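Hey,

The postdoc asked me to send both predictions to you directly instead of through the lab channel. I've kept everything plain text so nothing gets mangled by the mail client. Protein one:
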Amino acid sequence: MNKNHRSEIFIGKIIEQKVKECKLSISEFAILINRSRTTIYDIFHRKSIDIDLLLTISEVLDYDFLTEIYIPKSKDLSPKKCYLAIEVDPSAIPTDVREVSSDQKSRVKVLLNTR
């Protein structure tokens, strides 16, 4: 997410939309976040918001505003690779082995699952 995208975020409108989606009245929402109705309307018109208040609102609306709105999403959705290093006694490896066979890979998986 670039700076220009962040400047386009109008958090008050997003909160207002989420309140509507949760089918909460202004009064109900105000009680849940311990604010007045007047403050709720003020929140709906804000471009930015205090992080503590945003966390409270996130909890009440069961929506992670920080992750969904402010933290950039990775465009790479491909599975990530994870490498595992296993320490072995070199004398246990045959001298002619250069690569682990498919059968040996399966045995390693079984061993890891049992640990």
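Protein two:
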Amino acid sequence: MAADTTENSFKKKEWGTQSHIIVEIVEYVPDSIVSRTIITKQNGKVIVSSFDEGEKLCEKTTNYDTYVQIIDGEANITIDKVDHELKLGEGIIIPAYSLHCFKADQQFKMITTVIRGVAQK
């Protein structure tokens, strides 16, 4: 189960115009993945997500390069059948059109930055 809050409701709380602690924007919810879009523009977006222990989000691809950084806990990310274990503060680029999967052996939070440019093939 996943929850998502759009940029409009994010702005209603006025977090977009005030300083904030990024790791506190989303909480852990049992048996869930929670995502909140921080900003969406024509050329990209930034999302903060939390994964409860045991959750996974697999068989995904995007048309654009994506950068993820772990801001709490540790995550297992598979990109094109290669496993990566990311610890707090570490990041990785997921190339456009790469099959990828996020797995939470423990709770973790991440920032996802999608860079929209010319779609690559």
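Summary for protein two, as requested: The beta strands are 2-5, 33-41, 44-51, 56-60, 65-73, 75-79, 82-86, 91-94, 100-103, 108-115.

Thanks,
C.
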